[in-house]
Design brief:
- The structure holds two protein chains of two kinds.
- By secondary structure, chain A is of the alpha/beta class.
- Chain A contains five helices and six strands.
- In chain A, helix 1 packs across helix 5 and helix 2 packs parallel to helix 3.
- Chain B is of the alpha/beta class.
- The radius of gyration of chain B is 20 Å and the shape is elongated.
- Classes of the chains: A alpha/beta, B alpha/beta.
- The interface between A and B is large, with 38 and 45 residues.
């Protein structure tokens, strides 16, 4: 990737395909707002209207970030979160909740959510949380700088 | 016989400190008190402390300040937050900085006893340690990708403190050495990682690649998402 273009710092390779964000919320307005807020981020956005729907999408699709409402009828967000953790899926979960309480937030964080956003949140807060979530997902590869002629000039220490 | 687990209670309200002391001492814990964040940071010099009950809202050095101090300097110490006017934000922030739980005041003493006993239970501590390890490793990967190698090394040092027998952190330390052109140190750390877990692919790849073709550009593997390995390792703890 980018061969021949010698640079002094390790580079993060471009993702082969855009990251996928799944928005699970039973409120249509929230799904729309979130989708709009993330349009500029170059991510693929999927939506789910319920917990069951979310679990199905997680099985069918390669999801990087799950934006998860807690209060959904049927399978609620906490149950979805438990399933995600139990299956050790490669998905970073950001909870979005209208009726956030300390107890719920702590429970979600203990279960492995990496962020808990209270509704209403600003588009910028949401984008920030999604970027952070994508950062936490590990890309696997970094290219080291060339040892010869690297602009860093860091001496090899032994 | 093992020494009594030592618990630090940090709260600017005297009543809370005394109530907690009275509730926990009979369970066989040694209780140390601090009435401010400053005092707590001094008490944290004590290597025998295992758990801190920490009030968030204190004048001067706040509970969150103390929590950050613990995160940096005493990653071996478990923290349970106590809060009277807890906001969701403060609770989430506390959890991000490594608190194990947040208990809202007024609390029932039974609740405190249960949480403390649970956190000091060896099996539970092991699970928490694993979680902390994974967070440090994940933060380190992010710092490496941003070329913040010193920050990454800080995370990795804390990761290896928490669990010196897993390979991921050593592989990443090796990766940093390699990115800094220190191949001998890089290979030493890759080898350490492979010795710890001969099945850990990223370290094997790095070791083979760096031995095979050291001068040419190669690709340093930072390892898989940890969710995988922890699932495989579930029984090891």
């Amino acid at each position: 990737m980018n061969e021949g273009n010698q640079r002094s710092e390790p580079r993060i390779p471009e993702r082969a395909k855009p990251a996928t964000v799944l928005v699970a919320d039973d409120e249509k307005n929230v799904r729309l707002t979130v989708t709009e807020a993330l349009e500029s981020e170059g991510v693929r956005i999927l939506t789910a209207v319920s917990g069951e729907d979310a679990l199905q999408r997680l099985t069918d699709e390669d999801v990087d970030v799950l934006l998860l409402d807690l209060a959904m009828p049927g399978v609620n967000g906490i149950e979805v979160l438990r399933e995600v953790v139990r299956d050790a899926r490669h998905v970073a979960v950001v909870v979005i909740s209208a009726h956030g309480t300390v107890a719920r937030a702590v429970e979600a964080m203990k279960l492995g959510a990496i962020e808990f956003l209270e509704k209403p949140f600003s588009p910028e807060e949401l984008r920030h949380a999604v970027r952070r979530a994508l950062d936490r997902k590990s890309d696997t590869i970094v290219e080291p700088p060339a040892e010869e002629g690297g602009a860093r000039g860091t001496p090899t220490e032994c | 016989m093992m020494a009594k687990p030592k618990i630090l209670v940090v709260d600017d309200e005297k009543n809370t400190r005394l109530t907690l002391e009275e509730a926990l001492e009979p369970l066989g814990y040694e209780i140390v008190l601090a009435s401010s964040g400053e005092e707590a940071i001094g008490r944290l010099e004590d290597p025998d402390l295992t758990l801190v009950l920490l009030d968030l809202r204190m004048p001067g050095v706040t509970g969150l300040d103390v929590l950050r101090h613990i995160e940096r300097k005493r990653p071996d110490v478990r923290v349970v937050i106590l809060t009277a006017h807890g906001t969701v934000d403060a609770a989430v922030e506390s959890m991000k900085h490594g608190a194990l739980d947040v208990i809202q005041k007024p609390f029932a003493l039974e609740e405190i006893r249960t949480v403390v006993q649970k956190e000091l239970d060896p099996g539970h501590r092991e699970a928490a340690r694993t979680r902390d390890y994974e967070r440090e490793v994940s933060d380190a990967r992010k710092s490496i990708r941003e070329a913040d190698f010193d920050v990454a090394l800080g995370h990795l040092r804390r990761a290896t403190d928490r669990n010196p027998s897993r390979p991921e952190a050593f592989n990443l330390i090796g990766a940093i050495h390699e990115l800094r052109h220190n191949r001998a140190e890089a290979q030493r750390h890759y080898r350490l990682a492979v010795d710890l877990d001969p099945t850990y692919g990223p370290a094997k790849e790095n070791l083979e690649r760096s031995a095979r073709d050291p001068v040419r550009r190669g690709r340093v593997s930072l390892g898989e998402n940890l969710a995988d390995t922890s699932a495989e390792r579930g029984e090891e703890a």
